[in-house]
Predict the 3D structure of the following.
Amino acid sequence: MLNAILFYRISHWCYLHHIPLLPKLITLLIFLMYNSKVPPQAKIGKGTKLGYGGIGVVIHKDSVIGDNCMIAQHVTIGSRNSRYPGSPVLGNNVYVSHGAIVFGGITVGDNVIVGANAVVCKPVPANAVVAGVPAKIIRMQNEDN
């Protein structure tokens, strides 16, 4: 099935193999088809999926997303925070729900769930559930869940 993550994987491969024009064209195709910005420079792990094909997803080019993550539609993962400069790093098995924003040079630990429309602007430890504006830890999960 065609979706933004498949096109990203192709453009990322071309970017890593120094094929000059094709990654830019594929990024433009992603924007035109899915209204998303998924640059080839971003590091997205294996098994990561974008909800509804990746509609409305914006990912900063320096962001790092771990393996087996689920990024829902209309999610922004970017960098613009004076307290934590840089781009976000998401751990493995992270679920970012609809409309959430993760920004700044923060680290989101493994097995984290980010609630719908949450604004994550501080580091999040592993196995946490965060929600709200700004996002706060509302629950810690057991490692076996």
